[in-house]
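Lecture 7 notes: from sequence to structure.

We start with a single chain of 316 residues. Read the sequence below before looking at the structure.
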Amino acid sequence: MIHALLWLNEADIHRRALERAGFGNRLDIESLRLDQQPSAAQLARTELMLARQTPPGLLTKMPRLRWIQALTAGVEGWISLPDLRPDIALTCARGTHRVQMPENILGALFHLTKPYAQATLDQRDRRWVKRISEPLAGKTLGILGLGAIGQELAKKAQALELRVIGTRRSPEPLPHVDRVYPPDAMDEVLTQSDFALLLLPLTPETEDIMNARRFRAMRSTAYLLNFGRGALVVDADLVDAVRSKTIAGAVLDVYRKEPLPADHAFWVTEGITVLPHIGGLDVHRDEIVATLFADNMGRFLAGEPLVALVDRSRGY
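Now the structure, written as tokens:
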């Protein structure tokens, strides 16, 4: 029997997924809520763990731990742990946002070009105001980070007659993307884009990548959309760029500190839309992650390569 620790509030969903997959007789499954701490005995016997995060120093007390399945696609918190041993496999939830994230990004594009938000305010005030929407067709969407989400979005965006370009570490051609650039050609993508979308992971190379210089590379009519990581953007530089009309505005879903502090300038800067990190939320997300976990469990038990294995040198 392999000892598995499910350390999250939604453990029952993941336990049922493992049982449906037929692994119940091979696993000794223990579960804890987030407000509980594992005992010394649990730490000593755990061989694999499903968790949101662990405090620094805890992994040193888990000598038998061989695999961690993270609940999120971003793993910078895990990678930064000084006690994350090289022999522990770390997998993330990459791919579980494939449907919901592109739909929410498209919602942001429609928000920027269609007058529904203003019409809702007009209705509240019982005002009949004719407003004209701006077409998305013919515009250029620049996706910085053409991973699974970016490629799914490109397929949907192309159906709306958007021109799609973007960056990728391996810049070979991709379906539904007009041109793929290497990361060092980011400025070229920015200069062409009507909408510049950040879907990059947070690494030492990408932190603060959207700064004053790069905002100046954008069109004055262009918008920034950040659905990647908050620390990709220099906050003060973005505020200055929007207030000075260097760019037209921004839609943000991720921030350096969450919840976004009430005194942050993003709240009150005209042209910046603040979303409360809803991009990847899905009413079925727990089931989607549980399915990924069960699939990876089968691979783990069979000694096969794990899905969404994190490359720690790259940071994702």
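The domain at 2-96+283-302 is CATH 3.40.50.720 (Rossmann fold). Keep this in mind for problem set 3.
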